[in-house]
Request: fold
Amino acid sequence: YSQSLGQPCEAIRDGGNCGSKTRGMGAGRKLKIQRRENLWADKDYKKSHLGSEWKKPFAGASHAKGIVLEKM
Reply:
């Protein structure tokens, strides 16, 4: 049975850990990859690391009207 809900957990019967983190000495690679993939779900991280402002000329500016070629 799972500790919090009092309901049977299929993973415990099969020798698993019922939805918790991977454990053990060799689990570092899997945890690192999961963390790297889940980091992109964070809105602020995604916005700052996506790099779309370099792909479109006005994506970083809020009120851009045009590219200034020469100041008068």
Observations:
- The chain has three helices and no strands.
- Residues 2 and 72 are 72 Å apart (CA to CA).
- The helical segments are 10-13, 28-39, 43-49.
